[in-house]
Design goal:
Layout: H1 2-29, E1 35-38, H2 42-54, E2 59-62, E3 79-80, H3 85-89, H4 96-107, H5 113-121, H6 123-134, E4 140-142, E5 152-154, H7 161-179, E6 184-187, E7 191-197, E8 203-209, E9 215-219, E10 223-225, H8 234-240, H9 258-265, E11 270-271, E12 276-283, H10 299-303, E13 307-309, H11 324-334, E14 342-346, H12 348-353, H13 355-363, E15 368-371, H14 372-379, H15 385-397, E16 422-435, E17 438-440, E18 446-448, E19 456-462, E20 467-468, H16 479-496
Parallel strand pairs: 1-2, 1-10, 2-6, 10-19, 17-20
Antiparallel strand pairs: 3-5, 4-5, 7-8, 8-9, 11-17, 12-16, 13-14, 14-16, 15-16, 18-19
This protein binds flavin-adenine dinucleotide and 2-acetamido-2-deoxy-beta-D-glucopyranose (2 copies).
Length: 499
């Protein structure tokens, strides 16, 4: 009796020991280390939130900047979605197919159609996720260039969309991190400089410089690059798009393509790196014309009815709602080459629709409210008052397609304007804005390797502007924030399966 009890005890002990050992092994093997997310823009915030809230998978979020948000915090027009509740409420007819068609058309044969399909199909759930998880209203719509329906969402209220979204998502992370610093850890002033791979090519950690510049390593089997584009880096522009290095940019100084460089050095494939989006409208600050960094004149300004006038003739010269590349080309080819400038003119109705933003531009001295008559003198236009009034009237009168093939005219000037009528006006110039190219990913947000037998990287993911192939040769306005949410969620969902 005693002996058999003893034997059972020994068996049970061995069994328990094996279980413990197995668990130990699987902890190292099976990636129980926190996921490392690099970059705290919308892609990184989405990935982190999804991992910790839905799956309780621990995350360390690193950013080299001193504050959260990257370029995402500056987004001013909004985020795309087709077949959303907001569209339904506002009785807008739209479909995934239509959104995909617009995206593929804008991409001009470049990029990866499978990713575009994912982007557009998942847009409904992306908007829904933001609305339900973070209480974001996203109840207003604008129709931006190249879109065949109003589908760029923003919230009524005072905050611009990028700021509002980043604030909501980062608040949730901070709340959780203050309660459970293992589940969520945020490390700012921490610059990732390299990754570490084992002999199988599986990622085992990231190397970063801490706030004091010391080289450190953070072990992890799953790393998500959300480090943004390279629009601020003259070196990278010189390498991939040398024609553009003389243009100013809207991108923050942290936008230097670190992820693209680190990953490609480690064998990742790059795609469409030469496809850099020039946004037609960066504001020229009249007190600081030469500054290389420019405030963006949000595309919503044109989407809501702003028009562009030639800076010497005072005539319209383009379809303001064409895609960004086309409007840019018209500014560059039709306006004087020496300063590539045009006037952005908005009616009182546009102001009513976009009041907080325009007030902000006015406070920064980038937009002024003046009577039509003063435009001629202030900007040295070679036109007469009646001609200028007529030009604006003509624009308001168009109800079929105009001579620039523009059909949608909203918030235009009405027929009884005069030289006394006030307009809102700013000077704009094309700016480097977004890098379509980047690290090649598949529809699971996994990084694709070149010359590798396994093709897919092991444990490396990318989401947001650092990745390439989602927009081809030209990104539609509002699709960048969307790509952050769609592919950030996908990365998180795929990683969570491993835990
Ligand atoms: C002015 C402006 C307005 C825009 N408006 C819109 C809009 O209305 N709608 C839209 O869809 N898109 C818009 N865009 C584009 C969009 O904002 C960006 O493309 C998008 O936010 C990119 O998000 P992300 O998360 O990929 O990168 P980001 O938001 O740029 O974040 C990247 C982060 O990674 C960090 N990082 C970089 N390298 C390292 C490193 N080595 N180590 C650690 N951290 C690192 C950076 O510090 C940064 O915080 C706008 C862009 C600008 C500049
Ligand atoms: C950086 O240096 C300061 C001052 O010596 C120290 O308090 C801080 O802990 C250091 N940071 C890290 C991450 O080691
Ligand atoms: C306005 O339109 C009329 C008729 O379409 C045209 O004759 C006139 O030149 C236009 N005026 C301007 C200023 O373009």
């Amino acid at each position: 009796m005693v002996r058999s009890v003893r034997r059972v005890f020994i068996y049970v002990s061995i069994f328990v020991l094996i279980l413990i050992l197995k668990r130990q092994l699987s902890t190292t093997d099976q990636m129980k280390q926190p996921v490392v997310v690099i970059g705290s823009g919308l892609a990184g915030l989405t990935t982190s939130n999804r991992l910790i809230s839905k799956f309780k998978v621990p995350v360390v979020l690193l950013d080299k900047a001193a504050s959260i948000g990257g370029n995402s915090i500056k987004a001013s027009s909004g985020i795309n979605g087709a077949q959303t509740d907001t569209q339904q409420e506002l009785k807008v007819m739209d479909t995934h197919e239509l959104f995909l068609e617009d995206t593929v058309h804008s991409a001009k044969g470049r990029g990866i159609p499978l990713l575009m399909d994912k982007l557009t199909k998942e847009s409904t759930s992306a908007i829904k996720w933001l609305q339900t998880e973070f209480n974001l209203k996203l109840d207003l719509l604008a129709q931006l260039g190249g879109h065949s329906a109003p589908r760029t969402h923003r919230s009524s209220g005072k905050l611009p969309p990028g700021f509002e979204i980043v604030q909501a998502l980062s608040k949730k992370l901070k709340d959780i991190s203050s309660k459970d610093s293992y589940l969520m850890k945020i490390m700012l002033n921490s610059e990732v400089v390299d990754i570490e791979l084992n002999n199988d090519g599986h990622v085992t950690g990231v190397i970063y410089l801490d706030e004091n510049g010391s080289r450190k390593i953070l072990k992890s089997q799953n790393v998500v690059f959300c480090s943004g584009g390279f629009g601020f880096s003259k070196d990278m522009l010189r390498e991939f798009s040398p024609d553009l290095i003389h243009l100013p940019t809207t991108n923050g100084k942290q936008t230097t393509g670190d992820g693209q460089k680190i990953l490609s050095k480690s064998g990742a494939e790059l795609i469409d790196m030469d496809q850099v989006q020039v946004h037609p409208t960066g504001f020229i600050d009249p007190n600081d014309r030469k500054n290389n960094w420019k405030f963006l004149a949000a595309e919503a300004l044109r989407g809501l009815g702003g028009i562009l006038l030639h800076p010497t003739t005072g005539r319209r010269f383009t379809n303001e709602l064409n895609t960004r590349d086309a409007v840019t080309m018209d500014i560059q080819s039709k306006c004087p080459r020496n300063d590539n400038r045009a006037l952005l003119v908005m009616s009182e109705k546009v102001y009513d629709k976009y009041t907080n933003n325009i007030n902000f531009y006015m406070a920064k001295n980038l937009v002024k409210k003046v009577p039509i008559r003063d435009l001629i003198q202030n900007y040295d236009l070679q036109t007469t008052e009646p001609d200028l009034v007529n030009e604006l009237k003509n624009y308001s009168d168009v109800n079929t397609k105009d001579k620039f093939d523009r059909s949608l005219i909203i918030n235009a000037f009405d027929g009884n304007i005069s030289p006394e009528t006030s307009v809102y006006v700013g000077e704009i110039t094309p700016v480097v804005h977004f890098t379509m190219g980047g690290v090649k990913i598949n529809e699971n947000s996994q990084v694709i390797m070149k010359n590798s037998e396994s093709v897919l990287s092991k444990g490396l993911y990318a989401a947001g502007e650092v990745s390439g192939g989602v927009h081809g040769a030209n990104r539609l306005g509002g699709s960048s924030l969307l790509e952050c949410v769609v592919f950030g969620k996908i990365a998180a969902d795929n990683i969570a399966k491993l835990y």
